[in-house]
Write a structure and sequence with these properties.
By secondary structure, the chain is α+β, with helices and mostly antiparallel strands. The protein contains six helices and 17 strands. It has helices spanning 6-27, 37-49, 53-58, 69-74, 153-156, 171-183; strands at 79-86, 90-94, 97-110, 115-127, 140-149, 199-206, 218-229, 234-242, 246-249, 252-261, 270-281, 284-285, 288-290, 295-301, 309-317, 320-329, 339-343. The strands form four sheets. Strands 1, 2, 3, 4 and 5 form a five-stranded antiparallel β-sheet that branches. Strands 6, 7, 8, 9 and 12 form a five-stranded antiparallel β-sheet that branches. The termini are far apart.
Length: 348
């Protein structure tokens, strides 16, 4: 029988813990974004959480956060994860450089499960790209000053860092970006939706049927996020906000179809297209919002030539989007000849 000493058992337990930490670090998506100062801070703590201390060290410029790299790495040896939240960034220009002030709040989670919250400010510097020579230096962190704090990250996050006021931000849009990043993490090619070209937003002024005649119009915000692109289809995710319900992801009613083909040959003649129920879809294909008609339309190609497809139309009324029309072209015949299977839009 093979036996282990207490020392061996302790070593095995330590290795098990190390493997668990390494496994947890490996599960975190890799983030190395130096396109803006807040992204650099988020990348810094992503590197720390993944135990990639050399990468974390590299986000700092000439002024390093510790006397040497060894001391820097040792300072995080019991940290298993760091959650971070950043606030509106302000900037100031000086002698060929732009200095950024970044409000930051972090939650450091230790290997034993204990947590500590810190809040404060980071300063980052971008040397003008036009005056640089190789090697190019992207935005780098100059210094950070974080102090212990109590509470949720959003509550302890400083409202402003530096003397320059932060730019005006669209709070609802930023909330939509965060919800998209959270709810669609790993599902959409658009990442966290932070790029301006990934989202379109609209303001909807409307009245409910139950509103009094003299009641002021209600206001809603609609956000369309690009999700993914295929060979001939792209998908979008929608979020709707109003003052009463707040922000929520939209799901759209879509007919479930029973399609019969002659001799069960999908390339043959379509005998019938029947609705046998409805399901809820969180993504629409090739969709757009019509601001004049207050409607969302989608067009899903079943193959590249577009001869087989489905089209939906959802209209905004009483604060929600309702399916009012659905057309289906189920024939793979090289011709575009859709058949209406649901129509609450066309009058008698």
């Amino acid at each position: 029988m093979r036996t282990f000493s207490s020392t061996s058992a302790a070593a095995a337990l330590a290795l098990t813990g190390l493997w668990s930490l390494q496994s947890l670090a490996a599960e975190l998506p890799y983030l190395d974004d130096r396109s803006d100062p807040a992204a650099v801070v988020r990348s810094l703590y992503n590197a720390v959480s993944r135990k990639e201390y050399a990468r974390a060290w590299d986000y700092f410029g000439d002024t390093k956060p510790a006397k040497d790299f060894s001391s820097f790495a040792k300072g995080y040896e019991t940290t298993s994860r760091v959650d971070v939240e950043t606030g509106p960034v302000s900037e100031e220009g000086a002698a060929g450089s732009i200095f950024y002030n970044i409000p930051v709040a972090i939650r450091a989670v230790n290997a034993d499960g204990s947590e500590k919250v810190f809040a404060g400010c980071y300063t980052a510097r971008q040397v003008s790209a036009s005056i640089q020579e190789p090697p190019f230096r992207p935005i780098q962190l100059d210094k950070g000053s974080l102090q212990p704090a109590d509470g949720e990250l959003a509550d302890v996050l400083p409202k402003q860092c530096g003397e320059a006021p932060p730019p005006e931000t669209d709070a609802v849009l930023e909330l939509a970006r965060k919800l998209f990043a959270t709810s669609r993490k790993g599902q959409c090619d658009a990442g966290d939706g932070s790029r301006d070209d990934a989202v379109a937003n609209y303001t909807i002024s409307y009245r409910n049927k139950t509103d009094a005649d003299d009641a002021a119009p209600s206001t809603a915000r609609l956000f369309r996020f690009f999700c993914s692109m295929g060979a001939y289809n792209e998908t979008h995710v929608y979020y709707l906000w109003n003052q009463i319900e707040g922000l929520r992801e939209l799901h759209f009613a879509v007919p479930e179809l029973d399609i019969s083909y002659e001799n069960d040959n999908t390339e043959g003649k379509v005998e019938s297209v029947d609705i046998i129920g409805y399901r809820s879809e969180g993504e629409l294909v090739n969709s757009f919002y019509d601001e004049k008609k207050l409607s969302i339309a989608s067009h899903s190609k079943w193959r590249g030539v577009g001869d087989a497809s489905s089209d939906g139309l959802w209209i905004f009324r009483d604060g929600a989007f309702t399916l009012i029309k659905y057309d289906v072209d189920a024939s793979y015949d090289g011709e575009i000849n859709p058949e209406n299977v649901l129509d609450y839009d066309t009058g008698p």
